[in-house]
Amino acid sequence: MLFGEHGRPVKSASRPLKQYYPDNGWVEHDAEEIWRATLACCRQVLKGIPVSKVAAIGVTNQRETTLIWDKKTGKPLHKAIVWQDRRTAERCAALEAKGWGKKIAAKTGLLLDPYFSATKLEWLLKHVKGAREKAARGEVLFGTMDCWMIWKLTGGRVHASDVSNASRTMLLNLKTLDWDRELLRLFGVPRAMLPDVRDSAGDFGSAEKKLFGAAIPILGVAGDQQAASIGQACFAPGDVKSTYGTGCFVLVNTADKITHSRNRLLSTALYRRGKTKQYAVEGSIFIAGAVVQWLRDALAIIPTAPASEAEAKRAKPSEGLYFVPAFTGLGAPYWNPNARGAILGLTRDSGRAEIIRAALDAVCYQTRDLLDAMAQDMRHAGLKRLTRLKMDGGMVANNWFCQRLADITGLAVERPVVTETTALGAAYLAGLGAGIFKDTKAIARHWALDRRFTPRMKKAERDRLYKGWRAAVARVL
Ligand code: ADP
Prior knowledge:
- By secondary structure, the protein is an alpha+beta fold.
- It has a domain at 2-221: Nucleotidyltransferase, domain 5, CATH 3.30.420.
- It contains 17 helices and 22 strands.
- α10 crosses α15 and α13 (352-380) crosses α14.
- The strands form eight sheets. A seven-stranded mixed sheet has the order 16-17-15-14-20-21-22, sandwiched between helices. The protein has a three-stranded mixed sheet with strand order 4-13-12. Strands 1-2 form a two-stranded antiparallel sheet.
- Bound molecules: adenosine-5'-diphosphate.
- Adenosine-5'-diphosphate binds next to α11 and α12.
């Protein structure tokens, strides 16, 4: 995406990527394909635009996805292991049984789960022939997708990542924001293969002249959810955003303090710029927009995702009907990989519209699960109460869903003009680095409201409905 200095999108391009599922619960990507697709998109967007006008590149990416490549040839030694990949579940369980969970949470802010990069990297070093020996000789590099893009853009000159991405590897000490020696030893990772950890609005070298006709500096890098928080201008403690794409990710800014959750949420680095370090607490729901996809593709009861809105509007209230979309287990705050989905409370007059509505409701209830957990953590940390929720992602085009979210959470829900906040956040960071924005205050001034949804439901009703949701979840667990 190309953004103007006013923070509005100018042009964009996209390419689908092939998904590889080599085994049950395994998910891989071809890193060379990601690079080729990215390059093609950049060139498409720059067509007809003088490169000299481009101030800087910002990079944002799905986090945790793990790649190793040959330092000399630049060739990946294996496909990238994607964040969703569960192949190291057993290894995580074994580490948990040995008591590592607590220590890892204290050091990294993360839960011992295959989601994060460390056990994926360990798996690669163990299973790719010769990888461990080569890595020990300093001939292999590790990176998440930001790091790989930077390395490719700079023609192999820069091997670096930013704090927000590094904090998802489970190898970074969240306090020092540097690689943790004890964890490197635990996972058998030679330090020489790890990237330099830099500021999110920092110097990552320049994209080679031969790629776009002129060198373009790379000045901003952040993982997707942190980037979305920046795109939503969540710069003050207690500022919270919720992104509704395939899954849903809620992040709350906890300022320069690491807030360790008592409710199984994650602590993570939000960004670093010079002396300013910001942290966040994060909760994730695995299935958000994906449940709408399921209604469309598996049940085929809606032709398109947006058609869910009219159906939900015409549905009967159907009190007691709940859809728990635990297709791949439940994420925060339940963290149960074995739970599976269910529709509960069906009656003779439940139909298509009612099931669609229950599916959208589920995304609202799960958001409330996270917000309640967050509110407790924030109280403990002495941070101010959550009062409003900034939302973005594909699902927020659905006005019925937005209103329902306000009703179920009891918070004012705000939809910005630019809902592509992930890319916008990366552009803002690059703009900070390039001096287009003086500081985060200047960025915050660009945030513009499209529409605000205020709760219309009475508290008693909200609480009654939510109680029913908790009971439905309990049955699935
Ligand atoms: P991602 O970045 O994870 O691919 P997006 O932010 O592009 O996701 O959002 C796409 C998701 O939003 C899809 O899962 C789709 O089902 C859902 N979606 C898109 N439009 C609507 C809508 N009008 N109502 C409900 N869900 C929608």
